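Dear colleague,

Following up on Tuesday's group meeting, I ran the structure prediction for the three-component complex that the binding team flagged. I've pasted the input sequences exactly as they went in, so you can double-check that nothing got truncated or mislabelled along the way. The structure tokens for the whole assembly follow below. Feel free to forward this to whoever is handling the docking comparison.

Inputs:
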Amino acid sequence: MSVFDNKSSESPSSCGLAGMSHNTLPLLNEVSHALKRLVRTGESTIIDLRAIPFGPGDEARLINLLGKGEVQATLDTLGKTTVTETRFAGVWLVDHYNSEDERIAFQIEIIDIPELLRAQTEDMYESLDLLGEVVEVEKQKLNGGSPAIQ
Amino acid sequence: MQREINSGAVYVYEAPVRIWHWANALSITLLAITGYLVANPLPSLSGEASDHFLMGYIRFVHFAAAYIFAVGFLGRIYWAMVGNEHSRQLFKLPVHRLTFWRELLHEVRWYAFLEKEPKKYVGHNPLAHLFMVVIITVGGFCMLLTGFSLYAEQTGLGSWQDSLFGWLIPLVGQSQDVRLWHHWGMWVIVVFVMLHVYVAIREDIVSRQSIISTMISGWRTFKDDRP
Amino acid sequence: MAEKNTLGESLRRHGVSRRGFLKFCTATASLMALPPTMVPAIAEALEKAKRPSVIWLSFQECTGCTESLTRSHSPSVESLIFDHISLDYHHTLQAAAGEAAEAAREAAMHENKGKYILVVDGSIPLGDPGYSTIAGISNLEMLKETAKDAAAIVAVGTCAAFGGLPQANPNPTGAVSVSDIIKDKPIINVSGCPPIPTVITGVLAHFLTFGSIPDLDQYNRPKVFYGQSIHDRCYRRPFYDKGKFAETFDDEGAKAGWCLYKLGCKGPMTYNACATAKWNQGTSWPVESGHGCLGCSEPRFWDAGGFYNALSVPISDNSQTVAFAAAAGLALGAAAAGLNYKNKDEATKAHGTVTIDDLEKSS
């Protein structure tokens, strides 16, 4: 066993791909530094996993090491997107698929909540108008009259 | 360059030139050995991969020695401007002078044991002069150009190595051609070093002047008073 | 034909939400190999982007580049054609044939004068125009004609970018690259044999998003994809530094996934995105599958010696030169020795004998 494998085998979720894990450790370090930055300065980080030269098994190993946390969300827009909190709070896996179920982006976000989960300001304004309309319609229904009369 | 020298010693190689000579000797030796090993790596070491960093060290020595060679080269050019008359010999070749060619032929014949007596020179003899300029000045410059353009491949686009030397690879055609030239240059310099050491020892013994000690003390002494 | 409304409008009309748009921008940034911090800028640019008209010309090529493009998964070639660009001429993919096809090309050129992107795959023969023609028009003529009013030219594949296979020694057709002919247009070289599908679409996406050509390296290749060598991005690079090499394709080193340098990997001199973008929807890439890099995105890679010779092995056969030099050295040495011998003979002949009496006399 190499030095690195000894280290990682301490973690509960090591998948034991001996000698093939060269890009997992640096990436874990990067995540750890980014989390430190987030805690200290509030600066968030996004790591594009498609820009990382993974060796065979590296990606599976990384996902395994990051584990699963409490939050899991699925978005259905232009295909599926899953947002998973890892067992490290503030570290998220965001996995984008297109309508043919092919992965189009895969990122680690180090942030309190991924941007994609937030309601968009323009959408909220639009919702405000929409909600107003709904309230109006419901009011009319309650009064028993049709909105066209008033 | 032949002069009427009757006796006494002449101060030829100033201290910076001597330091440069020996630093160059060391860096060229290291460069040739490590360069060869970069091109033809040693058999894989046994044991865990994480215990070793062999190619990394070999490359580090190559690059460190290359920087010493490069800085030395620049320093030597500077010294040619501010040093004595002999310090400029490496940067000019009196090809327009007939005497140079005549004495060159004489020196070739002397090296081949076809002349009975060599001429005396304060600086380099014409043959040594020609080889120094072609191999060390021009050759060294070519090795620096090709070497740094290959080095720019790893320092990446936009690095100073790339902006200064990166143009060479597209000019030559592709990177493998540049590797070939760099490799050939190494063998040319290795052959030169062998000749250089042989001739330096030989001339120290059979010529009429000091050779090896001159590159240590800087003083040229002569064994006789004849012209 | 290119739509006049912007991509943002078009997407919203198709019921794409702002979250969806954000996702689309994230995928686009990832596709263009731009950092995720660029997403807001991309969103802003994409909102205003217009679908460009694309004319694709295929010259002396093997259709491998088109095969590669059709395997692009993000965006897929369908979404690329329907959502991102307006592919107005591509004689392998288009439905129209013969005169109708050529009419489509001319119409696209006319309507989008100065604004369309010209994509070229394949090299152009200069030896005889008859070597390669489309609808009776020689490649050279068609390239010049179509390039005249193009906004930019994308040379897809090593053939179009550098001459590629047709130009390999002895180059029977006199093949040249696009940049050998067109000098007055911005040319983006997307080299590779074939190029990575997402790199082709990524370059088109960049033009679509920003309306400009990306930063290029010294061979006019986009730096985001060709900025680093295979060797520097290779997951096997640590083995190189540690001096661990596979010596044959079936030894322990090969099984353990060690460096393939000695087996002829051209990774150190090859610039491409294979190590990160990978192939077949991110499944694998040559080095990961155990074979060295051929250097297919570099100029003249076909003539760069054997694919299974280490980088340091000379391209040409030097044994003849070395033998000749050795013979010449030997001849010179023999001549010098001969001359010496003559000198020695003369010296011996001229040598007078001295007796003890003589010496006593003179003293």
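The first strand of chain B starts at residue 10 and ends at 11.

Cheers,
M.
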